[in-house]
Amino acid sequence: MHSPNDAVDALDGKLIRLLSEEPRIGVLECSRRLQVARGTVQARLDRLQARGVIGGFGPQVDPAALGYPVTAFATLEISQGQGVDVRAHLSAVPEVLELHTITGQGDMLVRIVARSNADLQRVIDRVVGFDGIVRASTAIALENPVPYRILPLVEQASLE
Asked: Is the CB of residue 47 less than 8 Å from the CB of residue 2?
């Protein structure tokens, strides 16, 4: 858990926005645009990375552009005591993009991708083809009108 002292401030928010909009920008150019010293930008980046606020600078890859245009979410019910083994199994499936443990109906929520609806059956069969998974319920995503985003949350956090 983070303390209130871990909150991002306005400069952190501006830096995160700049890096999100232009991920290949250098520290020197960031300092020029934000009108702060290069050392300040570097110290802020180091602190944000150390705290886990910034987790990486890798490219955003679109699964559809890789040939996986179908996205689905599967809610999985697992056998008691099988969580570690199910996690390992799901980690070995390349089409599994995310795994969350959840409350409510089911135990895990998995985001998966496939090359087609027919290929989705293959992926689901691979996902559920494990003794620790008792039941699965799958929903196909039709569109993604609000894709994963973080900047509105960063802006709100930097104002608090």
From this structure: no
Q: Is 125 exposed, middle or buried (0-12, 13-18, 19+ CB in 10 A)?
A: exposed
15: three-class secondary structure by DSSP: helix
Alpha helices in 53-130 (DSSP H): 83-91, 117-128
pLDDT band at 57 (very low <50, low <70, confident <90, very high): confident
Q: What is the pLDDT of residue 43?
A: 96
Alpha helices by DSSP H, listed for 35-144, are: 38-50, 83-91, 117-128
Residue 41 CB neighbours (<10 A): 23
Task: Name which of 33, 132, 129, 38 is nearest 85 in CA terms.
Answer: 132
Secondary structure (3-state) at 96: strand
Rounded to whole angstroms, the Cα distance separating 87 from 100 reads 10
Q: Is 112 in a helix, a strand, or coil?
A: strand
Above 90 in pLDDT, residue 1?
A: no
Residue type at 36 in one-letter notation: V
